[in-house]
Amino acid sequence: MERDIKAERTFTSLADKLYFLCELSWEMLSTNQMSLNYRLFPDRLRRLFSHAVQEQKYLDHWHFDMMGQTMLIRNADGDYTPAHRSLLEFFVAYKFAAELGILAPDFIELDKAQSHLNEALSSNYTWSSYFYRQCDGKGDIEPIPSLGEFIPETVSLLAETVGKEPLTTANRIEIERAGAILNLLINMISPDQNKVNTRLLSLIRGTKGKSSEEVGILGGNIATILVRYDRQALRGQNIAGTNLIWADLSNADLTECNLEYADLNRAKLDINSKLVNASLRGVNLKNVNVTRSGWIKSMTLSSNSKVVFYYSHLLDDLNEPELHSVLQDNEVVLSLIEDKQSKWIQKIKSIFLLNYDVGEEVIRLLTIEGKDLTIEIKTGRYLPNDDTSLLRNWYGADLADAIGLDERNVYLLRVLGAQNLPNTSYDPYKDSRVNHAIRDEADQSESESEDDLHP
Questions:
Q1: Distance in angstroms (rounded) separating the CA atoms of residues 416 and 396
Q2: Strand 362-367 relative to strand 353-358, pairing
Q3: Pairing relation of β-strands 332-338 and 341-348?
Q4: Rounded CA gap, 227 and 29, in Å?
């Protein structure tokens, strides 16, 4: 980027060019418009740099600079497109980190390469205020104190940027885009964990009692960033009543967190989310699924050993003829494999394993039926259970008056140790999502019906 700046010829600086590319990248990604015609640049410049670019000569200088740089490519019609989409994602991630006030010092150095500074003074700025420049009566840009660090923008402004779209989503294409921005952003965050956690928690609390029309997906996105940065950042915190829709809290430690009456609509809380003794009274859990999405296939123990799990509905895909006589419906068989040889085989009476933990000497399992099992790795023998709450990640969580839970999730949360849940008639043995015997019977019945229709 420094190669693309000719500061001696124009009012621009490395910081100004970075700001412009960040804002232009955000406009392109947020509107899904991957090109911008050169005729539209003056309007963008005036909007971004206010009075500092009112004179045509400054616009002409900038346009000349844009034609000579390499990050935006111009075609014959004067349309500028990014040299690669990843550039847009980088600049948007940079903008978000700066707007949240969590940008790492080494990244901030790029913004300190600004022109027209009073080096004797230093000040902290928001992302938007730092680049808002004024001119004096002679038309010269007024000096400002040099940049100390970026501090967070207001919640209302952040709602239009960081809170506009979810950083996690179920849509594959959007996952690729938003996931790339999130991963880039995480690597730009300051190592000052206390400052980052304090600022992001303050912004999350700023969504308390506010609707999605007011704050967008801001609270959920900040929570996603925060727990990705520090898994335990929300442990024991009071974020009651906050708007956390679309938050990705998978693998987050929310032990003793106060989430009373928070909005967790479409949030992601997977089997690795830990909510031991958390308070979720009155919380909105609509469109939340708390279980794992697939079957446990194996657990790696070392470079030459692993525990493999076998299920009846997957047996046809395996070249393991000895298991056909062992494995029955509504059972799981596990085997210790060392140097490609089976050392022992053990049966579990269950249709689905809800959670597990691998220790140095034992494997702990929690079945969907609510049974705790402890198996010795060396021998495959069942052992007495030493800690029945270890795999129940919602142990003691209070869900009184929680809304949005379907009967399946009510059942699963009860197995995982949650309290004050409504009664449910859910039966996992009648759910084809976890009991493949039902799915196989349905498929067989459908096949026989088709055979009757087409002899």
A1: 9
A2: antiparallel
A3: antiparallel
A4: 25
Gap between the Cα atoms of 13 and 48, Å rounded:
14
Q: What is the pLDDT of residues 118-174, one digit of tens each?
A: 888 889 999 989 887 777 677 677 788 989 999 999 999 999 999 999 987 544 445
Write down the residue that tokens 């003829």 correspond to: 321
- Give me 134's structure tokens: 């004024």
Which DSSP string do the residues of 318-386 spell out, in sequence order? Answer: S--HHHHTT--TT-EEEEEEETTEEEEEEEE--S-EEEEEE-SSEEEEEETTS-EEEEETTT--EE--S
pTM of the predicted structure, to 2 decimals: 0.85
Count of other CB atoms within 10 angstroms of residue 285: 25
Residue 322 region, left (φ>0) first, then alpha (ψ -120 to 50), else beta? alpha
* Residue whose structure tokens are 């003793």: 256
Summarize pLDDT for 321-357 with one digit per residue, the tens.
555 556 677 889 999 999 989 899 999 999 999 999 9
**Tokens standing for residue 200:** 């992001």
Closest CA relative to residue 354, chosen from 340, 369, 341, 333: 369
Sign of CA dihedral 185, 191, 192, 193: positive
Secondary structure E strands in 106-165: 117-125, 144-150
49-52 contact pairs (CB < 8 A, 24+): 49/16, 49/131, 49/132, 49/133, 50/132, 50/133, 50/134, 51/133, 51/134, 51/135, 52/11, 52/133, 52/134, 52/135, 52/141
CA distance 96 to 187: 12
Quick one: residue 120, left, alpha or beta (phi over 0 = left, psi -120 to 50 = alpha)?
alpha
Question: In whole angstroms, what is the distance from residue 404 CA to residue 12 CA?
Answer: 53
Long-range contacts of range 204-213, CB-CB < 8 Å, 24 or more positions apart? 204/239, 204/242, 204/244, 205/239, 205/242, 206/155, 207/155, 207/242, 207/243, 207/244, 208/239, 208/240, 208/241, 208/242, 208/243, 209/241, 210/155, 210/243, 211/243, 212/243, 212/245, 212/263
